[in-house]
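quick one
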Amino acid sequence: MLYYFQFKYNIVKIKLLSHSKKVFLILYRINQYSSLLDNNHKSEIFQNIKDKIIDLDEFVFLTGAGISQESGIPTFRGPEGLWRKYDPMILASISGFNKNPKLVWEFYKYRQELICNCTPNHGHRAIAEFQKIKNSSVLTQNIDGLHEKAGTKNIVELHGNILRMQCTECEFQETIEQKIDQPLPPVCKLCKNILRPSVILFGEPLNPDRWTEAERLSSDCDVMFIVGTSLNVGPVNQLPLYAKRNGAILIEVNPEPTAVFNEIMDYSIKGSATEILPQLLQLQKNKY
Ligand code: BV8
Ligand code: ZN
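structure w/ zinc ion:
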């Protein structure tokens, strides 16, 4: 009797197995087919983009934390994002700094030490290369200095640079090479008041000259690439609208299309900066 059940169980098991194998094969085929579709669709988008932008002259790259993610710098709002662990209104706002400068400095010191050991990735380098063949500027929300490290020119650091610090009272400024070895908060060598990171904190206006330059570049460009940003933060998230109003083509590069602004994008290329930007660069290089 036992053998009978054993035999029956084996038959059922083999049937299930072969059935699940078939299911697995079908799923594998669907997956293969959809990634083929995906790639076909992507190459169709790229061909379309090439036809549209190949003869245009003025390009702007608006970049956010996503372009530095593959250099090892965490983004802010992703699953591992900084703002999931820390409250930006306590650690990255002007009110938080005024209330507890030492705590804010500890947050920035931890990020400075991470960032100063990071290097540009293929995405940063593709933009630096792109600039050699087309007139292009970079408007970055990032404070990590990686665009500059990649050899990029015409950069507007809209939110400042974490590897610089400045006096809260006088004109004193200082670049941070490796790490801050003074007690926190560091004090100004000239007037002994406390220093602050040279970044724009939440609740602070952007530097007026840099903002005016960003408005001009966005309003005059033919194409704006929006790379690695959730466009959550204002007023920078208004810049694609300046470009759109001027009739520019908006091309987004992001594994997750931005929620609010997705409708105004002419193209939304799903993918990472290090994967997509070199391909867009190739489009321009293959012009002739
Ligand atoms: C201002 C420097 C007016 C610091 C930053 C309440 C109180 C105070 C202000 C406000 C408030 N409510 C609203 C505001 C306005 C506020 C704001 O916008 N808040 C948001 C949160 C709603 N804005 C301000 O405060 C600004 N100033 O409004 O001033 C004013 C005028 C006069 C007088 C007084 C005041 C100042 C904003 C600047 C704040 N500083 N940075 C620091 O970095 O520590 S902003 C902060 O968010 C980050 O620094 C970053 O720069 C910025 C934007 O984030 P993203 O770069 O987009 O990053 P995020 O993680 O969100 O997205 C990453 C994306 O990458 C994702 O889409 C992901 O899918 C994608 N991705 C991931 N991996 C990859 C990838 N893409 C490509 N490849 C990959 N591999
Ligand atoms: Zn000073």
